[in-house]
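Researcher: We're teaching a course module on how sequence relates to structure. For the next exercise, students receive a sequence and then see the predicted structure as tokens, so they can try to spot secondary structure elements on their own. Here is the exercise chain.
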Amino acid sequence: MDYIKIIRDLREDNDITQQEIADYLGTSQTMYARYERGANELPIHHLIKLCEYYNVSADYILGIKDKK
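Model: And here is the predicted structure for the students to work with:
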């Protein structure tokens, strides 16, 4: 699951807390932390919101393409 490292790296590179992202996604910090650990699958509606937030493609987050 390439997206686990990618979503964590995007968050950390932008100096954003898990709580800030969780608030943006409308979920709890605990649930978002589970996405970053790979304990839960990232729902498609959260993937779309993360793409919009970071201004990157879904292919980038999913590890399909290297270009943001």
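Model: If you want an answer key for the exercise: The CA atoms of residues 7 and 66 lie 13 Å apart. The chain has a mean pLDDT of 95.
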